[in-house]
C-alpha cells in the first residue's frame, strides 16, 4: 500500500494584505467579492459582514465611480465600528488611476489594489496609467494583485504573440498562444511594477479563465516562471452545481500540485441567492483536501433502500447548519474545534463503523431496525438514544463534547464509554 500523498506547497514570497498573510507557506486564504453597488454604503457593509462572518478572509469591492471610491472610507469605518476587521480589496478597471488621485481616502482605506493590465489603459496610455496605479500603491503602502483575465486580455500583446507564432516553422495553436499571452501579461506586468519601485513581496498574480483545462495549464506554467503568490479562481464559473463542480475540478488539481496561495470560488448567485455560498464552497474544498480546517464537517451516508426514513437526512442537515452557525463564537473560544468530525448515519450497515471513526457519531435505525440510535464518542459507544428527542439529545452531546474537549470543561456522563454490568452466578 502506497503512503498517503502529502501536498508540498510551492515556495513563494509572502505578502501582507491588511494583516492577512498570503504565500510563504501561510495557510491558503479564502476570499470573496461583493455584488452590491459600492456607493450604497449600507448594502455593501451588510454584505461584507455576511461574507466575513461566513469565513471570507478578504473581501473585494468594486471601485468604478467617484461615488464608489468616496464610499469606501465610510464602509471601512462602519465595519471597524462593528468589530469587522476583514481587509477590503479595491477592484479597479479603466479609471483606477484617476479615482485614487481624486479620492485619496479610498486608497488609504483599502488593504490591496487589484489591477487588470488588460484594461488599465489603451494604447499609449496603458504604460503611463499602469505606472500611476503603481505610484498610488507605493504612496499608500499597499500591495497589488495583478489580475489578468482572458476576457480582457491585452489586445496588443496577444496580436504580437500571434504574429510571432505565425512566423514559426511549426506554429502553435491559437489556444496555446492565448494561454501564453495570459502568463506573459502577468509576469511582464509584475516585473514592470518592480522596475517602478514596488517590492516583489507586495505583488500577487492571477490569470483567470473560464475553462478547467485552460486554468490548470496556465497556472502550471505561471508557477514555473516566478515565486509570486498566486490567486486561484475559475472566472465565470457559472451557477449552482455547474459552478461548484467546475471550480473544484480546476482548483483541486492545482492545489494538489501545491499551486495556489489564495482562492475564490466565483459562483453566479441564483436570483436573491445567498452570496456567502461561494465562501462555504471554498472552505469545504480546502478542508476536504486536508489543507485547512474551518468548521466541523458532517459525514453522512447518501441513503438507500435501507434508509427510507428521512430522519437521518434531516438530522445531518440540522447538525451541519448548527455547527456552521456556532463557528463565529466557537472559533476563538474553543481552539481546534474546526477539525472536529461528526457522523450521522442512516442504518447499521456502515453506521457504527463510520460513527466510530468520527469524534462524535450516531447511527440511526434504518427500515425494520430496532428504533434506537447508538452514539459513539472517540470510537467508544457511550449512550443509546431513543424516542422523539434524538436530534435534540444528540446536539447536546455534541455541545458537551466541544466544551470538554476543546474548552477543558468537565465531561458530561454522556461522553463516557457505556459500562455494562455482568451478573455472575455464584458457585458452591
List the helices and strands and how they pair.
Layout: E1 14-17, E2 20-23, E3 29-33, H1 41-54, E4 58-62, H2 66-81, E5 88-92, H3 96-102, H4 104-109, E6 112-115, H5 125-140, E7 144-149, H6 155-166, H7 174-195, E8 203-208, H8 212-224, E9 231-232, E10 238-239, H9 240-256, E11 262-263, E12 267-268, H10 277-288, E13 297-300, H11 311-333, E14 341-345, H12 351-357, E15 360-363, E16 373-377, E17 380-385, H13 390-407
Parallel strand pairs: 3-4, 3-11, 4-5, 5-6, 6-7, 7-8, 9-11, 10-12, 13-14, 14-15
Antiparallel strand pairs: 1-2, 15-16, 16-17
Helix pairs in contact: 1-2, 3-5, 6-7, 7-8, 8-9
Shape: elongated
How many H/I helices? 13
User: Which band does the percent of strand residues land in?
Assistant: 15-25%
Task: Please bin the fraction of helical residues.
Answer: 40-55%
Label the structural class: alpha/beta
Low-confidence stretches: none
**N-end to C-end Cα span:** 55 Å
> What is the β-strand count?
17
Strand order of the largest sheet: 8-7-6-5-4-3-11-9
The profile of the biggest β sheet is:
8 strands, parallel
In angstroms, what is the radius of gyration? 26 Å
- What letter string, H or E per element, gives the SSE order? EEEHEHEHHEHEHHEHEEHEEHEHEHEEEH
Q: What's the average pLDDT? A: 94
Amino acid at each position: 500500500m502506497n503512503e498517503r500523498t502529502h501536498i508540498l506547497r510551492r515556495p513563494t514570497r509572502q505578502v501582507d494584505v491588511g494583516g492577512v498573510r498570503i504565500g510563504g507557506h501561510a495557510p491558503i486564504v479564502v476570499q470573496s467579492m461583493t455584488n452590491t453597488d459600492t456607493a450604497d454604503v449600507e448594502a455593501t457593509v451588510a454584505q461584507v459582514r455576511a461574507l466575513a462572518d461566513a469565513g471570507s478572509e478578504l473581501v473585494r469591492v468594486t471601485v468604478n465611480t467617484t461615488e464608489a471610491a468616496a464610499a469606501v472610507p465610510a464602509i471601512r469605518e462602519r465595519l471597524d465600528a462593528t468589530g469587522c476587521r476583514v481587509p477590503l480589496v479595491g477592484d479597479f478597471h479603466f479609471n483606477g488611476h484617476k479615482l485614487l488621485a481624486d479620492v485619496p481616502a479610498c486608497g488609504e482605506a483599502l488593504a490591496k489594489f487589484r489591477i487588470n493590465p488588460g484594461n488599465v489603459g489603451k494604447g499609449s496610455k496603458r504604460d503611463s496609467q499602469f505606472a500611476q496605479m503603481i505610484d498610488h500603491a507605493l504612496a499608500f503602502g499597499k500591495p497589488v494583485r495583478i489580475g489578468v483575465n482572458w476576457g480582457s486580455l491585452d489586445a496588443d500583446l496577444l496580436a504580437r504573440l500571434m504574429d510571432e507564432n505565425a512566423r514559426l516553422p511549426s506554429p502553435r495553436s491559437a489556444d496555446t498562444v492565448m494561454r501564453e499571452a495570459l502568463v506573459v501579461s502577468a509576469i511582464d506586468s509584475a516585473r514592470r511594477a518592480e522596475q517602478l519601485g514596488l517590492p516583489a513581496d507586495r505583488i500577487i498574480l492571477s490569470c483567470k479563465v473560464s475553462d478547467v483545462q485552460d486554468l490548470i495549464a496556465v497556472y502550471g506554467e505561471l508557477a514555473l516562471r516566478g515565486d509570486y503568490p498566486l490567486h486561484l479562481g475559475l472566472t465565470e464559473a457559472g451557477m449552482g452545481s455547474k459552478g461548484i463542480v467546475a471550480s473544484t475540478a480546476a482548483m483541486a488539481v492545482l492545489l494538489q500540485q501545491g499551486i495556489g496561495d489564495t482562492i475564490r470560488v466565483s459562483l453566479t448567485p441564483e436570483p436573491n441567492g445567498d452570496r456567502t455560498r461561494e465562501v462555504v464552497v471554498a472552505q469545504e474544498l480546502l478542508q476536504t483536501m486536508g489543507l485547512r480546517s474551518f468548521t466541523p464537517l458532517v459525514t453522512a451516508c447518501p441513503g438507500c433502500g435501507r434508509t427510507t426514513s428521512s430522519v437521518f437526512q434531516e438530522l445531518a442537515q440540522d447538525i451541519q447548519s448548527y455547527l456552521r452557525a456556532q463557528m463565529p463564537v466557537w472559533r476563538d473560544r474553543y481552539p481546534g474545534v474546526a477539525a472536529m468530525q461528526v457522523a450521522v448515519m442512516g442504518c447499521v450497515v456502515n453506521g457504527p463503523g463510520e460513527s466510530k471513526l468520527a469524534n462524535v457519531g450516531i447511527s440511526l435505525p434504518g427500515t425494520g431496525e430496532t428504533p434506537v440510535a447508538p452514539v459513539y464518542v472517540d470510537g467508544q459507544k457511550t449512550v443509546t438514544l431513543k424516542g422523539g428527542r434524538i436530534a435534540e439529545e444528540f446536539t447536546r452531546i455534541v455541545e458537551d463534547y466541544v466544551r470538554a474537549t476543546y474548552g477543558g470543561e468537565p465531561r458530561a456522563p454522556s461522553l463516557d464509554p457505556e459500562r455494562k454490568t455482568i451478573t455472575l452466578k455464584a458457585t458452591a
